[in-house]
Task: structure prediction
Amino acid sequence: MRSGSFRLPSRGRKESGKLRRLRQVRDSIEETGTWELTAEELKFGARTAWRNAPRCPGRIQWQNLKLRDCRDVRDLRGAFDALCDHIVYSTNKGNIRPAITIFPSRGPEDSGDPIRIWNKVLH
Result:
């Protein structure tokens, strides 16, 4: 990726939090070809995506969406345990709570079997 598409202020001035984060993202993309969302960015993105899903009648609860960040889970047993916890939390003995569990994205350096969820409810 070419970094000439946007410019950031020089590093000599005190940076705001947003500019500092933008610089981190740009540097990571230049170095690795990708970047990782912070927990707050992930939460915002998940809630915004759900709020903007036109065919979902439950989206009125988008601000109450509980994000479970499981990006550190790397094996099938950990994924199974996280999904079981997700079901217990979200079903809440019949008092449904909105929840989303996020697993790591698969990168080019990952080997082994990917985590795949073949279930119409847990997708």
